[in-house]
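Below: protein 1.
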Amino acid sequence: MIRSALLSTILGVVVLLAPTAALAKGASEATITGPGLGDGIRLAGEGDPGGGALMQIAEDSGFFPAVFRTTPNPMLSKRPDGELGPRYTIVYVMPGPSDVVDEIRQDVYPYATPSLVSYMKPGQPYFGTERTVGGWYVAGPTLKDDLVAVGLRATAPPVADDAGREIPWKAFGLLALLVALAG
């Protein structure tokens, strides 16, 4: 009798945890877009050939604490000081219950100084009823290495003006400031 009750309890726990384990696998794919990437870079998900790159980028960019509540929480509510440089957006495809697929967006700044950072908007829906924690995340230098390995440039791409002339990012910021002041 006790053995039967124990077996039923274990089976019940396994049944309850199975959907959670399936959902915790992460993104099935992702696309990175931004300056110099044309149509973007598509990354395969975990379990697919080459899927390790996506998992490493997700780990190093703070994807997991930005999506799932963690303790301690490394997410910042305010943008860290420094220059961000060009923004790249990673759109993660998250399969959920009942064949629902959500997309979670995360902005990454691989050329930011003094530290690389990422940002995820809080409240993005996933898995039906869940919402992202969001916020700013100070990433380590390995994030840039991960992104360069999948196709980003080692240095920030130049920005082009309306005539197609390349201007450096700092000059672009000064140009934007001058236009704002003149307007």
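Below: protein 2.
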Amino acid sequence: MGKRIAVITGASSGIGRCFALTAEKHGKFDELWAIARREDRLEELKSLVNVPVRPLPMDLTDRENLKKYAQLLETERPEIDLLINCSGFGKFCGTFEVPLEENQNMVDLNCTALMSMCQISEPYMNEGSHIVNLASVAAHQPIPYINVYGATKAFVLSFSRALNRELKSRGISVPAVCPFWTATEFFERAIIPGRKPVVRKYDALYKPEYVVSCAWRDLEKGKDVCKPGLTAKAEMAGAKLLPHRNVMDIWQKEQGLE
């Protein structure tokens, strides 16, 4: 194996960017590979962290880019100490009001790309390596009008917990982070311009820095699921205890979606 690296997807903004800015405090890396579509945002990271940054501008819904990532690993043979999958997006509206191509793209990015990054990266990991996958509180319940996004995050949570068990014998951990509403650029893409907002009430709105600090803390504690904040914990507990039909009723009533 060659140099030790951290790989972070969705590193151009929000939670992914916060992970990129703080990774050097939680491991010793020779290089940080930052993946996102916006190259200029990735270039900015070079002046903000002490570890060398390699910008990899990629749209991970394009499988050719996944092949390029695999080829880069094959050529350089690094040791991946840390993989953090933060790329993803959602839409706030009726499921079939979203163009089919965009729903497909959501599944490709939130599920297929995340699974692919894990499988491509795993051969370059050793005992003590970590894979951190960004799920959501939405993973714990069906959510009308945020349907496809919630379903993709349910995949991420289930996939991560099972993979954590599978890789335990190799000393590789795979925690899932399940944040509540978080103040990021996620909303800019989720909200449909010019239309009545689907989500009108936010019980809490956390800062990405707080979510990431909780994720680092729980990673060090060896937890397989991180639930940042009391509101997130309460929401997940309620979704576990109540029948999902009641959970959906509460959600729709709260947001005026009856």
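The first strand starts at residue 4 and ends at 9.
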